[in-house]
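Project standup — Tuesday

K.O.: blocked on the structure for the chain from last sprint. Re-posting the sequence here as requested.
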Amino acid sequence: MATPDQIREVVARYAKRLTAGSASDIADLYTADAVVEDPVGTPPHEGRDAIEKFYATVCQADLTAEHQGVRVAGDSAAFGLTVVAKAGDQTITVNPIDVMTFDSDGKITSMRAYWSQDDMTVE
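H.V.: unblocked you, prediction finished:
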């Protein structure tokens, strides 16, 4: 099992790569058969190729992401994330709670993001 420190490091890399990485950089944090459900309740993205395509769309925006309050239990982590996207003259802020599971090498096996349109602010 990945150690709590390894898991926290992957969470930190995830936020950094959302801010300044490519879709491929982000997908590399996941296992080949990982699943992403973002937001929860939408169709999941299954497998690294589908995950990379999902993040390719996400990475089109000018994003900054910062994680806070990482809680690790066993092979899972839950944490708050503040994501700010700038699109034209609008700034969109979302504050999801992400829950990730990890394999023994510290790769993400699943990610579920808990947020809805009601959680967004647009300025």
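K.O.: great, moving the ticket to review. Residues 73 and 98 are 14 Å apart (CA to CA). The longest strand covers residues 62-73.
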